[in-house]
Amino acid sequence: MATKTRYYVAATLDGFIADPDGGLGWLMAFNDAEGVEADYQAFVGEVGALAMGAATYEFVLGEGMAWPYEGRPTWVFTHRALPAIPGADLRFTSAAGGALDAVHDEMVRAARGRDVWLVGGGKLAAQFAARGLLDELQVSVVPVVLGAGVPLLPAALPGTLALTELKRFGRGLVQLRYAVPRAG
Question: pLDDT digit of tens for each residue in the chain (184 aa)?
Fold first, then answer.
C-alpha cells in the first residue's frame, strides 16, 4: 500500500480548527465521546511521519506534556528558531513552493510505507494541497459553532472531493474522509 499524505483534523460545524485565540477547549470537551480515542489510536498506528506548522508545535510545547509522537520523525515548518523537545525526532524547515516537494519526498521515505500526517494547521495543509501533495482530508466534525477562529483549510482544492468513509461517534460527532483529486 502506498504512502498517503493525510490531513486528519477536527473542526467545528462552521469550519474552524481552533478558536480565535488558538484554543481547543471546544474540542477537548469531546475527548470522551464514544469511539473517538479508539479511532485516533488506529489512525496514529498508520502514521510513520508527521508535518506540523509552528503554531501547532508551539501549542504542543505550551501544553508541557511529553512529546506525544514518539518514534515518528516530525517536520516542523517555521521561519523562526524554536526550541527542540528533548527526545523528539524533529526536523525544522522553512520549505515552501518547489522546496516543499523535496521535503515531502523525505517525509514519505521516513514514513517507511506508512502514512504522512499533516497535524493541525490549515495553512500548512493548504500549502501541501497547492503542490498536489495532499491525498486525503479526514475531518471529525464536532457539533459546536464558534462563529470565528482558525479556518479548517484556507484554500481551494481542485475538483470535487470523493467521500470514501463516514463514521459516527458519540455525542453527535461525525468523521468524514475524502480523497482529494489531483489538479489537472
Answer: 799 999 999 999 999 999 999 899 999 999 999 999 999 999 999 999 999 999 999 988 888 888 999 999 999 999 999 999 988 999 999 987 789 999 999 999 999 999 999 997 899 999 999 999 999 999 999 999 999 999 999 988 888 999 999 999 999 999 999 999 986 5
Concatenated DSSP letters of 87-148: T--EEEE---THHHHHHHHHHHHHHTTSEEEEES-HHHHHHHHHTT---EEEEEEES---SS
Q: Give the strand order in the sheet containing 174-179.
A: 90-93, 74-77, 47-53, 115-119, 5-12, 136-142, 174-179, 162-168
Q: 3-state SS of the chain: helix, strand, coil percent to 5?
A: 25, 30, 45
Question: 63-77 burial by CB neighbour count: b if 16+ within 10 A, else e?
Answer: eeeebebeebbbbbb
Annotate 4-31 with b (16+ C-beta within 10 A) or e (fewer): bbbbbbbbbeebbbbbeeeeeebbeebe
142 within 8 A of 131, measured Cβ to Cβ: no
Q: Which amino acid is residue 90, in one-letter code?
A: L
Report the C-alpha gap between 5 and 125 in whole angstroms: 10
The whole model's pTM is what? 0.94
